[in-house]
Amino acid sequence: MANADRLPPAFPDRAAWGTVKQLRAWQQAALNRYREDEPKDFLAVATPGAGKTSFALTVAAELLNRRIVNRVIVVAPTEHLKTQWAQAAARVGIQIDPNFGTRQGPSSADFQGYALTYAGVAANPLALRIRTEQNNTLVILDEIHHAGDARSWGEAVREAFEPARRRLALTGTPFRSDANPIPFVRYEPDGTGALRSRADYSYGYGPALSDGIVRPVLFMAYGGDMQWRTKAGEELAARLGGPLTKDLTAQALRTALDPGGAWIPAVLRAANTRLTEVRSGVPDAGGLVIANDQSHARAYAKILQQITGEPPTLVLSDEPGSSKRITEFAESEDRWMVAVRMVSEGVDVPRLAVGVYATATLTPLFFAQAVGRFVRARSRGETASVFLPSIAPLLSLAAGLETERDHALKPKTPEDEAALLAEAQQEKSEPDLVEGTFTALASEADFEKVVFDGGEFGLQTMSGSDEERDYLGLPGLLEPDQVKDLLRRRQAAQVERSESARAQSAAGAPERPRAAHEDLRELRKQLNTLVAAWHHRSGKPHGVIHNELREACGGPAAVAATGEQLTERIERIRSWATRG
After folding, report:
1. What is the three-class DSSP state of 411?
2. Cα dihedral angle (415, 417, 395, 341), rounded to 10 degrees?
3. How far apart are CA 99 and CA 117, in angstroms?
4. Cα separation of 177 and 365, whole Å?
């Protein structure tokens, strides 16, 4: 596998026939490798925003001009991307039909090829195979990992395009670890008993950042106190960002994402503040909220309209005109777009600079796809900011943004089958983990930290505080080293203020009057921390501990308890710890 760790950001020589005026260094190097090998199959792995489409169309134009192929078929994940490919191809003189149907007759002679989705391939692979055989065909498989989404999809892609003269596979996101081989991808032993995909050319986020092709990404992590009620009527409280089990983390995250709580409005307000700062240097910068489902997307859009006074662009995949709305947003200077999954992969909206990751999907694949919407750089100095829940899986993915992954092909074993069976049985016996079987009661947001370049900056502070505004107010035009320098200075100033406040308190200096909601939040946070500690000591679930405290001390659930009641519970659980 070749890579581009030491290439300059621009290549001075002429690009291939009929394409862009100048190729980027990695594109030219990958093209050189392609020319040298003349392969039937070629896999290019490049970070989102690096220019995979331009590279692929350069190859297509060259093969057409040399008459090695006379037909181009593009396979993309979504309907919108079919149109996007057709528009990009037209700019280099290749006419692609994005409305092609596998059951239609011959295409218009005006087209040199057509685009369809992976689902479209699976609908009639035999018809596509016949068409592929009738021409010297180049097949471009965009985001090739989708051919491994289902075994039937992979089989359909292999059946349809096995006779192709050339195949060019592209991906910009990490492959998964599963047992479904991706067609036309080469696998080699990795020394651990598994097979691992091998790219013919790779260009990761780290080299692309050094070359100025992608933006540095600041991850703004938000935690907070969450309360919810299970189907059985048990009321639980936990801190998002605290040490929780996998199940409690999932439930706390769903509570945070509930549009009826205070967490989402606070994070959306902070993200809008950040967007305003970025737009002071990049006037057309836009923001994107990736929602968990359509009902949440609609609710988030209403909250954003209340915050900004402007209705955001709402993109729901099952509504007519969604693709057109994405294009209109990309060409406008509107502030916000809200979507579910349709804008998570491949969609080209270069002006997106601020994102809110408001979905419970925690896979490396989806995370990389989502973050990829914000990294495309138009000029040096632009930064991207992504707001996300402060939970370990997402923070780990944010810290490892530069990690390059291949597809690990792991054959299923009897142990794997047993694990899958156990997981299925667990899901059936724990209905509280199923959507709709619990009720979010309340949520509050706290700014936790900024994750950047693998490091963490900042101290926990309340949403809306001056300390939070220090980080939200970072300039939108900065080089990566300037970002890190400013984050260090912000953190140092925050630590200094915190130590000064503690010194004044110790010296008996009068404190500013605190609002009741601040006192209650601090008490609930303290109680939840003690409950978590008692859970690890006693093994009892968090909810059981909270119910035992209510029985011992009286009063309502923590979300509705008074300061006096919360203080009594704090003292009671401390006495339990003392007695052992």
Report:
1. coil
2. 160
3. 11
4. 10
CB 284 within 8 A of CB 333: yes
Q: How far is CA 128 from CA 63, 94, 138, 156, 226, in A?
A: 21, 20, 13, 10, 52
Beta pairing class for 313-315 and 286-291: unpaired
Looking at the chain, how many residues does it have? 580
Q: Which residues sit opposite 440 in a β-bridge?
A: 228
| Six-digit token string for 553 | 């001390």
- Neighbour count for residue 500 (Cβ, 10 Å): 10
Lookup result for tokens 């270069």: 350
Q: In which residue are the tokens 């988030």 written?
A: 300
| Residue 510: other Cβ atoms inside 10 A | 7
Radius of gyration of the chain (CA): 26
Residue 326 exposure: Cα atoms within 13 Å on the Cβ side: 27
204-224: pLDDT as tens digits: 888 888 888 888 899 999 999
Average pLDDT over residues 93-110: 80
Q: Specify whether the backbone of 70 is left (phi greater than 0), alpha (psi in -120 to 50) or beta.
A: alpha
CA distance to 101, 152, 157, 318, 355, per residue, from 123 (Å): 10, 10, 10, 19, 35
Q: Which of 292, 330, 329 is nearest to 314 (CA)?
A: 329
Rounded CA separation 365/175 (Å): 7
Give the whole-angstrom CA distance, residue 560 versus residue 64.
70
Write the pLDDT tens digit of every residue in 171-207. 886 565 566 778 898 888 877 777 778 889 999 888 8
CA dihedral (65, 70, 76, 82) positive or negative: positive
Q: Are 159 and 129 in contact (CB under 8 A)?
A: yes
The structure tokens 């209403």 sit at 302
Q: Which of 224, 354, 181 is nearest to 280 (CA)?
A: 354
* Three-state SS at 465: coil
DSSP conformation class of 358: E
Q: Is 555 left (phi over 0), alpha (psi -120 to 50) or beta?
A: left
C-alpha distances out from residue 249 to 1, 159, 246, 389, 451, Å: 39, 42, 5, 11, 20
Residue 18 has pLDDT above 60, yes or no: no
CB 561 within 8 A of CB 567: no
Angle, alpha carbons 300-303-308 (nearest 5°): 120
Query: How far is 382 from 479, CA to CA, in rounded Å?
Result: 8
Tens of pLDDT, residues 332-377: 999 999 998 765 555 678 899 999 999 998 888 788 888 888 988 8
Q: How far apart are the first and last CA of the chain?
A: 59
**Residue 251 contacts residue 433 (beta carbons within 8 Å):** yes
What is the per-residue pLDDT for 237? Answer: 83
241 touches 420 (CB < 8 A) = no
Q: Which residues contact 128 (CB under 8 A, 6 or more apart)?
A: 73, 102, 121, 160, 161
Q: What DSSP letter does each residue of 290-305 carry, written as one string? A: EESSHHHHHHHHHHHH
Q: Return the structure tokens found at 77.
A: 């994940």
Give the residue among 410, 409, 389, 407 at the shortest CA–CA distance from 398.
389
- Residues 6 or more apart in contact with residue 125 via CB below 8 angstroms: 155, 156, 157, 159, 160
